[in-house]
UniProtKB/TrEMBL annotation:
Active site residues according to the UniProt entry: E266
Pfam family, one: Aldedh
Record-linked InterPro entries: Ald_DH/histidinol_DH, Ald_DH_C, Ald_DH_CS_GLU, Ald_DH_N, Aldehyde_DH_dom
GO molecular function: oxidoreductase activity, acting on the aldehyde or oxo group of donors, NAD or NADP as acceptor
Protein name: Aldehyde dehydrogenase family protein
PANTHER family per record: ALDEHYDE DEHYDROGENASE-RELATED (PTHR11699)
Species: Piscinibacter koreensis
Keyword tags: Oxidoreductase
Lineage: Bacteria, Pseudomonadati, Pseudomonadota, Betaproteobacteria, Burkholderiales
Protein family per UniProt: Belongs to the aldehyde dehydrogenase family.
Family matches, as PROSITE patterns: ALDEHYDE_DEHYDR_GLU
């Protein structure tokens, strides 16, 4: 990653980013975007300018699609699955070698604590490792058919795939989306979020160092309404992957529908963790809290609702409240920080509006983490807040706040727990805490969501585990082998030979 640039860091020192940030990558070459316009990234820990990025637009997207098609007709398309796997393995090793640097960039750009940024870099490497090994293991089938025929199926790439990646987990979502698409032999056009994309740009440079052929991966930063809209509506993009808000996902799907293009949508969530009276509460506590405040709550699968059976409600509430009061909120690069800033002033203001409205309605607060008076005045800090005995129909329990806010909801028995858990527009993830094996299976089957975790939450990243939602949480699946199926087309061949 040559061509060092510096930016004002979280402690006021100059931090070497290590590469030019204001360019697009098209056909293996970095260049200024069409028109030369740029946007400013912000350091959310300070509220200060971090670095410029390219403001790509429709012309850049068209050039990127052309480059992807050229790669498919040339060096990239000529590789077999084993060769693609070896390239992904080499790229995964590059990511591991640069994990600390990537973690620092993620902390600066997104505002997540350094330890969380490093975990994301390790997860990116693991995605690449998984898809490297899986690339030559996606098989067709031979189908029983009439006498005199042999029928079989083939898995083939879509062609050019578009990837619109959000700001909250750039590395992880690039890994699960772009990694799987490349493993299947697609050529990718990637539009990272305008709020945070340093690690995406760094990843693209590492991909070139690992030997990825020019045009296999193209990156066009820019605004959603410009570069993103151009990518979603491009007539020669054959598949779209989008992670983000429900409203924007609907626009992406509508644009893709005009071209009859399949879309994978991973949208919002209001995910519950359900704690029954027989649960191992001590084992559950770290998951109950961390799944709500990780990345300052800016996680689609955040456990924003904690449902607690009434006999243990007070004990669980008090234990969670104690952990909230002990949380340390601070700059992303500071040691020992549990919660960093949220991504922007706008995001902070939206969260604070939710909190103020709840207070005006008289919703009780069980606990809130303290904010140090010495935090930078320009930083986008929100005190992690735990609300007590929230009504299941309250806005706090229904709307995705996307901040470090959790609500506690008491319930009475399985039927009540299911009514509350399934009673939102979302259906992404759920957690169930109980020692009763029969109840574990009943709940897992009855919950309306894409993933259910029993006596855990998140399964430590679970690269192998298909991920996606139902209802307003989206459709399609990424991660695991399901992602490879989604990034491929099934072709049926019937041969009459007599």
């Amino acid at each position: 990653m040559e061509g060092a640039r510096s930016a004002e860091g979280a402690t006021g020192r100059d931090i070497e980013i290590g590469f030019p940030t204001d360019q697009v990558l098209i056909g293996g070459a970095w260049s200024a975007p069409d028109g030369g316009a740029t946007l400013d990234l912000e350091n959310p820990s300070e509220g200060s300018r971090l670095a410029p990025i390219a403001r790509g637009g429709a012309a850049d997207i068209s050039r990127a699609v052309n480059a992807a098609e050229h790669a498919l007709a040339g060096a990239w398309g000529a590789l077999d699955a084993t060769e693609r796997g070896r390239l992904l393995a080499a790229l995964g090793q590059k990511v591991l070698e640069n994990a600390d640097r990537l973690a620092e960039l993620e902390a600066l750009d997104v505002g997540k604590p350094l330890v969380q940024g490093r975990a994301d870099a390790i997860a990116l490497a693991r995605y690449l490792e998984f898809y490297a090994g899986a690339a030559d293991k996606v098989h067709g089938e031979t189908l029983p058919f009439r006498s005199g025929y042999t029928a079989l199926t083939l898995r083939e790439p879509h062609g050019v795939t578009g990837h619109i990646v959000p700001w909250n987990y750039p590395m992880q979502i690039v890994g699960r989306s772009v990694g799987a698409a490349l493993a299947m032999g697609n050529a990718c056009v990637l539009k990272p979020a305008e709020e945070a994309c340093l690690t995406v740009l760094a990843f693209a440079r590492l991909a070139a160092e690992a030997g990825l052929p020019p045009g296999a991966l193209n990156v066009v930063p820019g605004l959603g309404e410009e570069a993103g809209a151009a990518l979603a509506g491009h007539p020669r993009v054959n598949h779209l992957s989008f992670t983000g808000s429900v409203a924007t996902g609907a626009l992406v799907q509508a644009a893709a529908a005009a071209n009859a293009v399949p879309v994978t949508l991973e949208l919002g969530g209001k995910s519950p963790q359900i704690v029954f009276a027989d649960a191992d509460v001590e084992a559950a506590l770290p998951f109950l809290v961390n799944a709500g405040i990780q990345n300052a709550g800016q996680t689609c699968s955040a456990a924003s609702r904690i449902l607690i059976e009434r006999p243990v409600y007070a004990a669980v509430r008090d234990a969670m409240a104690a952990r909230y009061r002990a949380l340390r909120v601070g700059r992303a690069l500071d040691a020992g920080v549990d919660v960093g800033p949220v991504i922007s002033r706008r995001q902070r203001d939206q969260i604070e509006t939710h909190l103020a409205s709840a207070r005006d309605r008289g919703v009780r607060i069980a606990a809130a983490a303290p904010l140090d008076a010495g935090l930078p005045r320009g930083g986008h800090y929100v005190a992690p807040t735990l609300f007590d005995e929230v009504d299941a129909d309250d806005a706090l329990a229904q709307q995705e706040i996307f901040g470090p806010v959790q609500v506690l909801i008491p319930f009475d028995g399985e039927a009540d727990a299911l009514r509350i858990a399934n009673g939102t527009a979302y259906g992404l993830v759920a957690g169930v805490w109980t020692r009763d094996g029969a109840r574990q299976l009943r709940m897992a089957r009855a919950l309306k969501c894409g993933q259910v975790f029993v006596n855990n939450y998140g399964a430590a990243g679970g690269v192998e585990l298909p991920f996606g939602g139902v209802k307003h949480s989206g459709h399609g699946r990424e991660k695991g082998f399901e992602a490879l199926y989604g990034f491929s087309v099934l072709k049926t061949v019937a041969i009459r030979h007599g």
